[in-house]
């Protein structure tokens, strides 16, 4: 990741090797930077003497600036250009399609007037070495910068930096790890006297050589070694910078939990010094503080107040009965037993009750026969149409045969299919034909009584089928 | 009341009562290490429900024993998966871990609703009973809806039961563990002679509180473990608290 800063330093009156030819040089503070360490990338430009102000505008092409990399302007404007380019601009390294963004705050830039004679300009970027990944393979390549001036074109030599992983194996234990750089932390607490349960503001001031912008603010949990949860409630309260951009400040709200606390303890931290190539283990503090008991302000009586431990961290509200209660009072074997019952029931229904159900179906049919005969023996003798309805309803209930005005042949066919004996079927067909004759002979009621009686006998005979 | 009376009274209590009494007193005195020790002794006596592990985790957390706190919270979470306090405390404990390995993905059974295994079994049983009742009803009533519903409930019950069983079996097969020391190298083999595993940032070291899965234990006191990011290596048994409950 590339982080902060640009710096332009323009100085005049430096002697170039050849006054008539512009030159370019791209260099880095270290050709083997450590991952996360700061790299100073410097572009030194020598223009022929006196040309900067008079002989046309130099054109500078910096290909590793992903956007707006072509500058055609007076050198005096480079500084402003760099300032404008500082924040949030992606930078290409290794022609990587994944841009790496510059972010953060620019260093104060200085620029001098362009002098006469040979003019040397130095543009400087502060970058943080990105982690080694599959794309960069541990190498940062910066494409050559091109300068066109007075019809001459010059290219800088390509720059290649080989990244080195930080030797994690030798890293000391402290949880606050500032990464690569030579840093110093000073801790401050304000106010120094706080009431129990009230907050004080702890500030960690980080200065030193390295990619300050790249440091991650230590999470409150990382301070827990020095400020254990049993003694302090710590929450992050943001960060700030000093006005000159050389000091980064991490703020925390610290709430002491016990009256016995008399200091914010030493906060150990570690950082990797890239020059000495070794891990440093350092410490900030301690800072003396005084905790007052607000309940007994003005009284010298000692109290046993332990401070506001969150309710959810309590452990004493227990009893043997509570702790000994089983989470799951039901035996798994009982569950298994209960689970086994339904399939067995299903089998029982399928084998036994399902058959009973079939005989119940037969019983239902007998009931149908009784109902039909009841209807036939009512006070009013049914008409032939009524006989048809009663008979067909019986057939439907008894044999599951749905017929609608069947002919004698159809009736015969269906009854035979239902398993009715031939003789009974013949009787039924004969009766059905007589009934049809009675229905379609106008005005006669002579045979109605015999038809009803025959119907009763027929139904009784049919009802014996399958039983 | 004479000063020695509480001591005499507590000495006459049964051991479990005495330890619980010690826990009460420890909280009053803000003596979390004493409470943590009492909880550990109770655990050795066979105590171990969800509430017990939660409170044990609290005591260890207050006492500053991060690894034991996380292990106790993890045990409690298996029984009390919906306890918000427990989740918050576990999250707070995890925040104290330095450079925890990132997670590749959540285990499949963590996508299930937050039910503990017993509850999963109960829901499975309910679906099972309902499915079979519908199957019995289906014997007497022709209905596609009843058929589909019966099969759905029966299959759902089997799935739920299989999930619950698999997560239990996973815990037996690959118990969780918590690293109890800082900067323990994750080695490529089961001995100090093996080099540490390397990643992009150099040798891999795990810190106190990092949660692992124990894949295998060698008789020479080394564990083959898997980190949350999928890295597999070896750690000494003495550097790991294993959940063998």
Topology (elements, then pairings):
The complex is a heterodimer of chains A (467) and B (245).
Chain A: E1 6-12, E2 23-28, E3 38-47, H1 51-54, E4 59-61, E5 70-72, H2 78-86, E6 90-91, E7 100-101, E8 119-128, E9 139-142, E10 146-149, E11 152-155, E12 159-162, E13 176-190, E14 193-195, E15 200-210, E16 232-241, E17 248-256, E18 263-264, E19 267-273, E20 278-284, E21 287-288, E22 290-292, H3 320-324, H4 332-376, H5 384-399, H6 408-417, H7 422-440, H8 448-463
Parallel strand pairs in A: 13-19, 14-22
Antiparallel strand pairs in A: 1-8, 2-3, 3-8, 4-5, 4-10, 6-7, 9-12, 10-11, 13-15, 15-17, 16-17, 18-21, 19-20
Chain B: H1 5-11, H2 15-28, H3 32-44, H4 50-63, H5 66-79, H6 84-95, H7 117-140, H8 144-173, E1 176-179, E2 184-185, E3 198-199, E4 202-203, E5 205-206, E6 211-218, E7 222-227, E8 232-236, E9 240-242
Antiparallel strand pairs in B: 1-6, 1-9, 2-5, 3-4, 6-7, 7-8
Describe this structure in words.
The complex is a heterodimer of chains A (467) and B (245). Chain A is of the alpha+beta class. Chain A has 3 domains: 6-162, no CATH class; 174-311, Immunoglobulin-like (Sandwich), CATH 2.60.40; 364-463, no CATH class. Chain A is 27% helix and 27% strand. Chain A is built from 8 helices and 22 strands. Chain A has helices at residues 51-54, 78-86, 320-324, 332-376, 384-399, 408-417, 422-440, 448-463; strands at residues 6-12, 23-28, 38-47, 59-61, 70-72, 90-91, 100-101, 119-128, 139-142, 146-149, 152-155, 159-162, 176-190, 193-195, 200-210, 232-241, 248-256, 263-264, 267-273, 278-284, 287-288, 290-292. With 245 residues, chain B is an alpha+beta fold. Chain B has 3 domains: 5-95, Alpha Horseshoe (Serine Threonine Protein Phosphatase 5, Tetratricopeptide repeat), CATH 1.25.40.10; 109-173, no CATH class; 176-242, SH3 Domains (SH3 type barrels, Roll), CATH 2.30.30.40. In chain B, 52% of the residues lie in helices and 14% in strands. Chain B has 8 helices and 9 strands. Chain B has helices at 5-11, 15-28, 32-44, 50-63, 66-79, 84-95, 117-140, 144-173, and strands at 176-179, 184-185, 198-199, 202-203, 205-206, 211-218, 222-227, 232-236, 240-242. Chain B has a 5-stranded antiparallel beta sheet with strand order 8-7-6-1-9. In chain B, a hairpin with a 4-residue loop joins β7 and β8 (232-236). The two termini of chain B are 42 Å apart. The mean pLDDT of chain B is 84. Classes of the chains: A alpha+beta (467), B alpha+beta (245).
